[in-house]
Amino acid sequence: MVFVYVLIGLLGAVALVFTVQNPDPVTIAFLNWRTTPLPLSLLLLLSAFVGVVCAAVSGFAQQFQLKRKIRRLETRLAVLSRELDSPLREPVRIDSVRGQSPNSSVAPPVARSRIM
């Protein structure tokens, strides 16, 4: 965690130096829209801030989606656990799962070896 704080401090120092060294006014034009002249450093820092906000919104949306999925899977696990622990159910035999009844007189298929 200390590394993150040091990294944020270094980035802040770099941004401060960048701001001091780039005070030239710049006008941005997009279609018919124009801004008043603003310092280049302010515009670049503003665009970086907008990028951080967009990334944060995307991260929060993904986190919300994952929490919903976890909640749904926990509910499913609880339902399956209740069904497994239910004393009213008859135990499931492996033979019946494979499609054979336990009293079946048919022998299970035997793997044949290939003779070359």
Output the structural class: mainly alpha
- Give the overall shape: elongated
In total, the number of strands is: 4
Low-confidence stretches: none
Main sheet: strand order: 1-4
**Roughly how much helix do the residues carry, as a percent range?**
55-70%
> In percent terms, what proportion of residues is strand?
5-15%
How would you sum up this structure, described in words?
This protein has three helices and four strands. It has helices spanning 2-21, 40-85, 94-97; strands at 25-26, 29-30, 33-34, 38-39. Helices cover 60% and strands 7% of the residues. The strands form two sheets. A two-stranded antiparallel sheet has the order 1-4. A two-stranded antiparallel sheet has the order 2-3. The protein is mostly helical and 116 residues long. α1 (2-21) packs antiparallel against α2. A hairpin with a 2-residue loop joins β2 and β3. It has a domain at 9-86.
Quick structural gist:
By secondary structure, the protein is mainly α. The chain is built from three helices and four strands, in the order H-E-E-E-E-H-H.
Keywords:
single chain; 116 residues; mainly alpha; two-stranded antiparallel ribbon; 3 helices
Helix-strand layout with pairing:
Blueprint: H1 2-21, E1 25-26, E2 29-30, E3 33-34, E4 38-39, H2 40-85, H3 94-97
Helix pairs in contact: 1-2
